[in-house]
TrEMBL record:
Organism placement in taxonomy: Eukaryota, Viridiplantae, Streptophyta, Embryophyta, Tracheophyta
Keywords (A to Z) from UniProt: Hydrolase, Metal-binding
Family matches, as Gene3D superfamilies: Survival protein SurE-like phosphatase/nucleotidase
Protein name: Survival protein SurE-like phosphatase/nucleotidase domain-containing protein
Region of interest (Disordered), ranges: 24-61
Native organism: Brassica cretica
Record family assignment: Belongs to the SurE nucleotidase family.
HAMAP family, per database record: SurE
SUPFAM superfamilies: SurE-like (SSF64167)
Length: 381
């Protein structure tokens, strides 16, 4: 076979000839060649797709509510539809709300691939912080530093001191610790009022801000040393606009309720068959303490007591074991400072609060972040 190279390199011409001959099912010696199998074609298409995606900025998404939560699904679907980003997901396989900045050192956690169209996704048998730490380690993905980490959309507000309990906020904080810009998104979900479609509306509210964030990260003008906590009102589509806010001291009240022994979580919850007995017992203890953050139960008010008889050195010892569940309850409070996150959220604004790694954000970082937010709000979208 001969061909003019038209100014192309010899290596490229050779590659083109090879591809063309294979498409015809004939190699240079004239012998017939079997057509590639369907699996080979699919693998090649996936390879090509991944190669194309490499040129797009990588966005890593996680949350605290679990990988199947409607908030995360709505966000990922919207990011994929944008077509601008190489979207990766690394999120807890179960609800890990109120897990704060906890991690699981010394234990084996599983990362299983999940089919979310247009995104490379894994569910992890760990906490939100585990997910971000693993995702940024280079052990799970081929890269180790995305352009942005987004945590959310969380089902429930994370204003004020609630950030210290939130697994979603902690995931964004872990990204900041690792030097990666991050956003945390939460919807002020209200029982008997909110519905799943509100998450799609919330995404529509936040997407322009996400796009502006990535654009300015690429330009090197996005504020450093802080993460943005974005709180979306209960009715996202009728919000009153964005408002730069300060962190309040508001929090939900932790309420402990006694439960009967037969409602104690089973030993099989969230356990890997590969875990050691000690690791399983440790996991069980964490699951028992965190379960109330995700579920509401009608329980009896008096303490439930279980008596155990334990034989120690030939003696019988009675021990008292009690079971409790934790549920966070929103407090009715009057807030007078319009610049506080919880006040702006209750008034129907989208609250945007800069958070730092310090217990309280320093004035300089607050000023730089606020300036960027005001610039975004005043820019032509």
């Amino acid at each position: 076979m001969t061909s003019k190279n038209n100014g192309l390199s010899a290596a490229l011409v050779s590659n083109l000839q090879d591809v063309l001959s294979k498409r015809k099912g004939v190699v240079d010696d004239g012998s017939a060649e079997e057509p590639p199998s369907t699996s080979d074609v699919t693998a090649k298409e996936e390879e090509d797709k991944e190669s194309d995606d490499d040129s797009r900025p990588i966005v890593l998404v996680t949350n605290g509510d679990g990988i199947d939560s409607p908030g995360l699904v709505s966000l990922v679907e919207a990011l994929v539809r944008e077509g601008l980003y190489n979207v990766h997901v690394c999120a807890p396989q179960t609800d890990k709300s109120a897990s704060s900045h906890s991690m699981t050192p010394g234990e084996t956690i599983a990362a299983s691939s999940v089919n979310i169209k247009g995104a490379t996704s894994f569910e992890v048998s760990g906490t939100p912080v585990d997910c971000i730490s693993l995702g940024l380690s280079g052990a799970l993905f081929a890269w180790s530093k995305p352009i942005l980490v987004i945590s959310g959309i969380n089902q429930g507000s994370n204003c004020g001191h609630q950030i210290f309990y939130s697994g979603a906020i902690a995931a964004a904080r872990e990204a900041l610790i690792s030097g990666v810009p991050s956003l945390s998104l939460s919807l002020n979900w209200k029982k008997d009022e909110s519905q799943e479609s509100d998450f799609r509306d919330a995404v529509g509210v936040c997407l322009p801000l996400i796009n502006a964030t990535i654009r300015d990260i690429e330009k090197g003008v996005f504020p450093k040393d802080c993460s943005l906590n974005i709180e979306i009102p209960t009715s996202p589509s009728s919000n009153k606009g964005f408002k730069v806010t300060k962190q309040s001291v508001w929090r939900k009240s932790p309420g402990w309720q006694a439960v009967s022994a037969n409602r104690h979580p089973g030993a099989g919850n969230f356990m890997s068959n590969q875990q050691s007995l000690g690791a399983q017992l440790a996991q069980l203890g964490r699951d028992a303490s965190a379960a109330g953050a995700a579920r509401r139960f009608t329980t009896q008010k008096k303490s439930i007591v279980e008596i155990e008889s334990v034989g120690v050195a030939g003696k019988t010892e009675s021990r008292v074991k009690k079971y409790f569940r934790l549920e966070f309850v929103a407090k009715e409070e009057e807030h007078t400072d319009d610049d506080l996150d919880i006040k702006a959220l209750e008034d129907g604004f989208v609250s945007v609060t800069p958070l730092s790694l310090l217990p309280k954000i320093d004035p300089e970082t607050q000023a730089v972040a606020s300036e960027w937010i005001y610039k975004y709000l005043n820019a032509d979208q």
